[in-house]
Amino acid sequence: MVFNMAKGQPLVPALFIFGDSVFDVGNNNQLYTIVKANFPPYGRDFKNHMPTGRFCNGKLASDFTAENLGFTSYPPAYLNLKAKGKNILNGANFASGASGYYESTAKLYHAVSLSQQLEHYKECQNELAEVTGRSNASSIISGAIYLTFSYSAIPVSFRHVFLSTFTSWPLPRLSKTDMKFFKNLYALGARRIGVTTLPPMGCLPASITIFGSGSNDCVSRLNNDAVNFNRKLNTTSQNLKKWFPDLILVVLDIYQPLYDLVTKPSENGFFEARKACCGTGLVETSILCNHKSIGTCANASEYVFWDSFHPSEAANKVLADDLLIAGISLIS
Ligand SMILES: *[C@@H]1O[C@H](CO)[C@@H](O)[C@H](O)[C@H]1NC(C)=O
Ligand SMILES: *[C@@H]1O[C@H](CO)[C@@H](O)[C@H](O)[C@H]1NC(C)=O
Ligand SMILES: *[C@@H]1O[C@H](CO)[C@@H](O)[C@H](O)[C@H]1NC(C)=O
Predict the structure, then answer these.
(1) In 3D, which of 245, 248, 247, 313 has the Cα closest to residue 276?
(2) What distance in Å separates the CA atoms of residue 306 and residue 152, rounded to the nearest whole number?
(3) Which of 78, 82, 88 is nearest to 129 (CA)?
(4) Ligand 2 centre and the CA of 268: distance in Å?
(5) Domain presence at residue 299
(6) 160 assigned to active site
């Protein structure tokens, strides 16, 4: 039903995206950071086989979401836009690889933190008003969907992977700062917010390699951390909804769908979930996944993971379909 509705006009006026590498569509290309993906084999299954900065072989879950909502193009990477103007009428993407709930890791990797992403969004609102007038801009702003996501703990592990001196993986915590992000987004006019949960962090190929003590099973400690975080996120969202009755805030669960893909790949049309496609599939991501990586698979369509942290396009499609069902109240 939703898919049919989406054939004509988009279901909402715009889609604004915040987050980290899971949603970054090229913002980090413009930054002085090692956390990049704008070189092959990234993007090899994307339009024109072009690397764009997406940490994936093809489309991200947010790209599929834009399609599902009826948009004919994806919200552009805000920092990539030379001319903003009409390009931002249907939304924009502020996500930056290695940002996340920790301002400190964003700083460490010279990424755009969530609070800086909000500053960019403020700028974007002014540009919208210039292009289409205050009144049109304000209906775009209040009607738009805001999708936000964070792997949060991953950037820390980047450092660990590079330095190989890891001992533990700091837990993401929902702090007052995180509440502030949602409050600020609301204060800026957002009324439809979808926030995705943490994935089963212990099932990412890199987690198993680094923390699995030689086993090929998901690391339950890390999965428990994610479950606890998600529970708090849920409570936070209930509180926010109490404070702001006109806010539609939906927690979009990606934990269970990704967990199912990893633990029962063949039931979902996949055959490889332990190893990622790129390189050995055990540790590589970002600059460690490049055209010289040895062992990269020929066809990622049956791999759950593209690199050792990031789902493949095929897995993203499954996740996006679940998001659509979970997020139905955002468009009704
Ligand atoms: C506001 O939107 C309407 C309908 O799309 C359009 O006709 C009008 O030109 C817009 N206003 C400005 C100032 O661009
Ligand atoms: C959040 O809470 C609701 C009900 O309070 C529950 O149905 C849902 O499964 C919870 N989601 C997560 C991710 O814990
Ligand atoms: C990858 O394999 C799938 C079937 O598993 C096939 O449909 C697709 O065309 C293949 N892609 C490439 C690039 O070979």
Answers:
(1) 313
(2) 19
(3) 88
(4) 24
(5) no
(6) no
Whole-prediction pTM? 0.90
Judge if the upstream peptide bond of residue 41 is cis by omega within 30 degrees of 0: yes
The yes-or-no answer on residue 120 being catalytic is no
CATH code of the domain covering residue 235: 3.40.50
Report pLDDT digits (tens) over 119-151.
Answer: 999 999 999 999 999 999 999 999 999 998 766
Residue nearest to atom 10 of ligand 3 (CA): 299
Tokens of 177: 């700062």
Catalytic residue chosen out of the listed positions 21, 62, 286, 308: 21
Could you read off the pLDDT of 37-79 as tens digits, one per residue?
Answer: 898 999 999 999 999 999 999 999 999 999 999 999 999 999 9
Residue 169 lies in a domain: yes
Give the total number of structural domains in the chain.
Answer: 1
Q: Is residue 311 part of a domain?
A: no
Instruction: Identify whether 216 is part of a domain.
Output: yes
Spatial separation of the C-alpha atoms in residues 151 and 111, rounded to whole Å? 14
Structural domain for 235, as ranges: 2-263+316-331
The tokens describing 159, both together, are 């450092």
One-letter identity of residue 232: K
CB count within 10 Å of CB 30 equals: 17
